[in-house]
Amino acid sequence: MTIEIPQYGLKAYALLFSKHGTHKEFRQSELDWIVSVSMKKKIFSLLLRSGWIKKQPSGAYLCANPSDAIKGLLEFRVPEIMKTAEKDYAFTRLSAVEIWSDFSYVQRGFEKSPYFIKVLQKDLKYWKEFFNKNEIPNYVESGATIGEYVVLIPVGRLSFEEKSGFKVEHLKETMQYAKSNEIYAYASEYMDNKYGASE
């Protein structure tokens, strides 16, 4: 898994990769004559944390394969990250349809991977900080970007069930949402067959 890095990190990675490829080890001293000690530590910390370089048992480093690093930018991380959340939430809309239909309907691809999540209005700051800390683009009510992102839907009260390890909007609401658009007909039929037709 890799995450997006600022330009200074990408330039440092490009320099290290162009000199060492993916098989030749290097040390932090590689940047001694280029940047200050504090900037060098910042660069190596960023590249290591974001998955662009790997630390070796010897204490030296190796560059990640650029192809793997670029593809890693599009990996799905939100489901695992949500397991570490300390506040209540509820997957809603298409995200709830995915979960309740046992992923028979999947709305995501590498190009566009939205997650719709209800959160308490009073917890909105926590959620923005939570996703920012994990470097996941996030929006309130609406928004979009390339790859994985979260749309937060603030509510005054929150109600959910647990399904497949996630907190998700109730089945009845999800089935009503699925029936609201012909696009979700397969998922709606799947849920009707599994749970019984909604009233």
List keywords for this structure.
199 residues, alpha/beta, 4-stranded mixed sheet, two-stranded antiparallel ribbon, 8 strands, elongated
Topology of helices and strands:
Elements: H1 7-20, H2 37-49, E1 53-55, E2 61-63, H3 66-72, H4 78-82, E3 90-91, H5 93-100, E4 112-120, H6 124-133, E5 138-140, E6 147-155, E7 161-163, E8 166-168, H7 171-179, H8 185-195
Parallel strand pairs: 4-6, 5-6
Antiparallel strand pairs: 1-2, 3-4, 7-8
Helix pairs in contact: 1-2, 5-7
Strand content: 15-25%
Strand order of the largest sheet: 3-4-6-5
Largest sheet: 4 strands, mixed
Order of helices and strands: HHEEHHEHEHEEEEHH
Q: Fraction of residues in helices?
A: 25-40%
Total count of helical runs of at least 4 residues: 8
Radius of gyration: 21 Å
Q: Tally of extended strands?
A: 8
**Which secondary-structure class do the elements indicate?**
alpha/beta
Cα-to-Cα separation, first versus last residue: 43 Å
Low-confidence stretches: none
- Average pLDDT confidence is 87
Indicate the overall shape: elongated
